[in-house]
Amino acid sequence: MDIRHFRYFLAVADSAHFTQAAARLGIAVPTLSRQIKEMEEELGVRLFDRVQRRASLTDAGHVLIAEAREVVSRFEAAQRQARRAGRGEYGRLEIGYVASAVYRGLLQRQIETFNQMHPDVQLNVREMPMAHLPQQVAEGRIDLAYVRGPIGSSEGVEIIRFDDEGFVLALHVQNPLAAASNVDPRRLAAETFILPEQLIGTLSLAELGGFNPRLGPQPGSLLAVLALVSLRQGVAVVPESIVGRLTLPQVVYRPIKGLRVQSWLGLVYRRFDKAVTVGRYVELMRHFRCSSS
User: Where in this chain does the record put each HTH lysR-type domain (predicted)?
Assistant: First the structure.
């Protein structure tokens, strides 16, 4: 007995007539009669009392009908869910991100856009150390990752690059350099640098200033970096997008004279990922990039 038998049984029960049920199902009356007879033989009970081609449920048939409707309903629901998953309309995505994606607002806008278009795809979004993100994607531990570039190449992944931005210097308000409208890199040789996860700003500033930087701790997130700046543990070169978005007591931001290096946020995905849901997310973000450029 399979799901077809239950559908045939329900068609006859609903119409109380073999000819009408057969027409509704698009099969011949003898075929329908044979299928119902197979059910009755397998169950060992009579499901219908037959008068010519009319049919009325027996007591056993009345007991079976509610369960049959439930079986068919669940089977059809499972089919719909499978089809939706195959179209990328249903499922789950694991997304890692570097903290600066949140401060810039890019992550929020893109997640909201995807949620509106695909409300039944569950997004599990969590902050992770940026150095691990490309490899996590390449190994399939997460599906997608928002990183701050430039980054080194990682085998098996591609990157959608979003808007570029520059860097500013975060320093304690009582640092003498805070009085400057912009800071000359040559005046920073004696400073200790608190390191964010993206080092290119710090290294480029030191090269511009002609010194080897005195490196302090690398606490991870931008909030942790700025917390150390607020405690007068050093200065930090941070993305300019956090100005006005992340404020800590005693921390001010100043432009850096002559520093032209750019940073950017990007979406990392596996090059040959065949998951439909991942493909839908990536394709949407390609359009997102084009519309925001």
Answer: 1-58
Neighbours of 188 (CB within 10 A): 24
- Extract long-range pairs of 109-115: CB within 8 Å, 24+ residues apart: 109/288, 110/284, 110/285, 110/288, 113/284, 113/288, 114/281, 114/284
Integer angstrom CA distances of residue 79 from 65, 244, 288 = 21, 50, 32
d(CA 184, CA 15): 87
| C-alpha to C-alpha distance for 3 and 71, rounded to whole angstroms | 8
Contact between residue 206 and residue 220 where contact means Cβ atoms under 8 Å apart: no
Q: What is the pLDDT of residues 47-93, one digit of tens each?
A: 998 887 788 899 898 889 888 888 888 887 777 666 666 665 557 89
- Length of the chain in terms of residues written: 293
Gap between the Cα atoms of 100 and 168, Å rounded: 14
Q: Distance between CA 22 and CA 128 in Å, rounded? A: 59
What CA–CA distances, in Å, run from 134 to 154, 195, 276? 6, 20, 20
> Do the beta carbons of residue 215 and residue 195 sit within 8 Å?
yes
Instruction: Check the CA dihedral 171-177-183-189 and report its sign.
Output: negative
Q: Residue with structure tokens 């359009």?
A: 287
pTM of the model: 0.67
The residue among 289, 288, 273, 285 whose CA lies nearest residue 142 is: 273
Number of Cβ within 10 Å of residue 242's Cβ equals 22
